[in-house]
Specification:
single chain, mainly alpha, 30 residues
């Protein structure tokens, strides 16, 4: 069960980084 939580935590970090990159790209484009 702990491993599932760890995987979900990593996925959340990757998702946050992904959206942050999109926001950064939009700002650079603007």
């Amino acid at each position: 069960m702990a491993s599932k939580v760890g995987i979900a935590y990593v996925n959340t970090l990757e998702a946050a980084r992904f959206f942050t990159n999109i926001s950064g790209n939009k700002q650079l484009g603007a």
